[in-house]
Every structure is written in C-alpha cells, then in structure tokens.
Amino acid sequence: MYRTSFPITLAFLLAAGCVALPWERTVVEGTGPDELLKLRAGPGLGFRVLMGLPEGTVLRRKDCVTEEGQLWCQVSPVDGPGIEGFVSADYLSSR
Predict the structure, then answer these.
(1) CA end-to-end span of the chain, whole Å?
(2) CB 30 within 8 A of CB 91
(3) Which of 95, 62, 78, 79 is nearest to 87 (CA)?
(4) What residues contact residue 79 under an 8 Å CB cut-off, 6+ apart?
(5) CATH (domain of 35)
(6) Buried b (16+ CB within 10 A) or exposed e, 16-33
(7) Is the pLDDT of residue 54 over 60?
(8) Model-level pTM?
C-alpha cells in the first residue's frame, strides 16, 4: 500500500505547490549573442572558469551568496546535471 500511495501523494503535493524544490529554474540573459557567462568553481572572480554558458542556457539555481559586494549563485545546467558551479546573479533571469 505504501509504495503505491507515496508517488501519488508526492505528485499531488508538487502539483499543489506545497513542496518546495531545492532549486529554482533560471536562464542566462544579458551576455549578448557572442559572449559566454563564465561558470566558476567558486563564488568570485578568483576561482577558475569551468566552462562558458551561452545566452539562453537553462539552469537550476540553488543557493546564492554575496562575495565582495557581488551576488553569486550556485547553478547546474539542466542539460548537464553533473556540472555545477557559480555564476554572477547579474546574468540570471527567471522565465
């Protein structure tokens, strides 16, 4: 009984908006057509660049932190869930 009722209950709670997801969907915006947003290993310019993200890339946003007056968010590309890093919040927008 428990195995069949749990997925149904979870689906109902998610649909009703009663359960918060540990991430929020966001999109890379404002970089321009020929520029890439740098995904960094940590929250700040001093961390190494892991990869560049083009405009329109859909991300999962987790926690955000402020470092030296700049807001950095921990993200993971939806199409690359094994990849995770930090980007400047200035280039993120919810859709």
Answers:
(1) 38
(2) yes
(3) 62
(4) 58
(5) 2.30.30.40
(6) eeeeeeeeeebbbeebee
(7) yes
(8) 0.74
Could you report the per-residue pLDDT of 2-50, keeping only the tens digit for each? Answer: 455 555 554 544 444 444 456 789 999 999 888 999 999 999 999 999 9
Using CA atoms, how far apart are residues 32 and 2, in angstroms rounded to an integer?
A: 50
pLDDT of residue 80: 84
Indicate whether 55 belongs to any domain.
yes
Q: Where are the beta strands (DSSP E) in 29-84?
A: 36-40, 49-54, 58-67, 70-77
Pairwise CA distance, residues 38 & 85, whole Å: 9
Q: Is residue 35 part of a domain?
A: yes
Which distant-in-sequence residues (6+ apart) come within 8 Å of 48 by Cβ?
40, 41
CA distance 82 to 4: 30
Q: What is the pLDDT of residue 21?
A: 53
Q: Is residue 44 a part of any domain in this protein?
A: yes
